[in-house]
Amino acid sequence: MKNISILGATGSIGTSTLDVIRRNQTQFSVTALSAGRNLPLLKNQIEEFGPKVVSVIDKKHADKLREMLGRSCETEILSGVEGLREAATLREVDMVVSAIVGAAGLVPTVDAIEAGKGIALANKETMVMAGRLVVETALSCGVKIIPVDSEHSAIFQCISGHNKKDIRRIILTASGGPFFKLERDKLSAVTPDDALKHPKWEMGKKITIDSATMMNKGLEVIEAKWLFGVDIERIEIIVHPQSIVHSMVEYSDGSLIAQLGLPDMKGPISYALFYPEREEVVEPALNLAEVEKIEFFPPDFDMFPSIGLAYGAVKRGGSMPAVLNASNEVAVAAFLSREIGFTDIPRVVEKTLDLHVPFEPESLDDVLRADEWGRAKAQKIIKDSKEGS
Length: 389
Ligand code: NAD
Ligand code: MG
What we know:
By secondary structure, the chain is of the alpha/beta class. It is built from 15 helices and 11 strands. The protein has a domain at 2-147: NAD(P)-binding Rossmann-like Domain (Rossmann fold), CATH 3.40.50.720. It has a 7-stranded parallel beta sheet, with helices on both faces. α2 links the parallel β2 (28-34) and β3. α5 runs parallel beside α6 (124-141), α6 (124-141) runs antiparallel to α13 (320-336) and α13 (320-336) packs across α15 (364-388). The termini are far apart. Residues 8-14, 34-36, 38, 57, 84, 99-101, 104, 122-125, 149, 201, 203-204, 207, 265 line the site of nicotinamide-adenine-dinucleotide (NAD).
């Protein structure tokens, strides 16, 4: 029996993780859950899975949740960053599913690594912000990080049993998002509702907007660099609208190895939870005879400048990727609240990066300092642009 803690239990990845656990209750037990503010869903999850500990965003929500659950509930309710850190490091927990969205996922994920927990990593921002430190910590604590991001799960599977020195290229597939076929001059007028209609994947709002700008793929390039220890020059992107080929690895002899599957996150989640075993599923698998076509296109760096910004940030290194991530989070939130337009998102990120003097973070505090700097600067850029217009 593996004891699981899910950080971000009420989100898209969190609920899919519980779906996988629900069908495998003899093999997994839910020891801890954490969430932000969605108390009704969290209450249902507590009643169904009976975790020992639950943590929510703040004390007010913790009080409300206790009231909703009633006195007979034995789950301990915690709150805030301290509660999150407790949920990530409980002695009984074997594996932590890191599925909070954004920079808030970094600290509890590193805590879990330091506590020696197995990590199923969905929170790509952890790797973008602090890749080098996270990899070093995992190595020194003897912790294996199993990716949940579908592309990275694919690559993880494609490199297993091969020599790293033989890898020529890692090729990340991208669906292209909802605007892949849009005429370029229409991009500036798209609304949050348009951008939230992803053609292939059902995900949280932030990653759905990142998919529309293609910043998601840029973040994934950085995530791949750190997870697999491969130079950025060897990591490429290819647009594949059907989202059937989840990614590929090319070896020195020209051989390409790909992993295929339906576009359903339960696949990579199940892979990470069961690793090194595999789940036996009864549901229908991908029927290749029913796939009408499998297409590939080069990414459009001009239409989607976020991709180039991500490559640029990781090439400059140090604190740059943390600032890229922070300014992107601020810009995406501003777009969702209709303060800025869609094409302003990469503009805000680019301006923030231009103003940043990178330094090499030696600690998590240094990374958080860069994150804070990037947020404040991006907010100022947005405020100044509103006042100027
Ligand atoms: P989501 O918005 O659906 O869920 C986020 C979860 O985090 C929720 O449970 C929310 O309550 C919690 N949360 C948010 N802010 C918090 C905070 N400050 N403190 C504590 N909890 C907080 O997001 P998602 O789509 O499930 O994505 C989660 C992560 O997984 C992201 O990093 C995303 O990039 C990555 N990911 C998601 C998918 C997907 O299909 N959804 C695929 C690959 C990677
Ligand atoms: Mg992905």
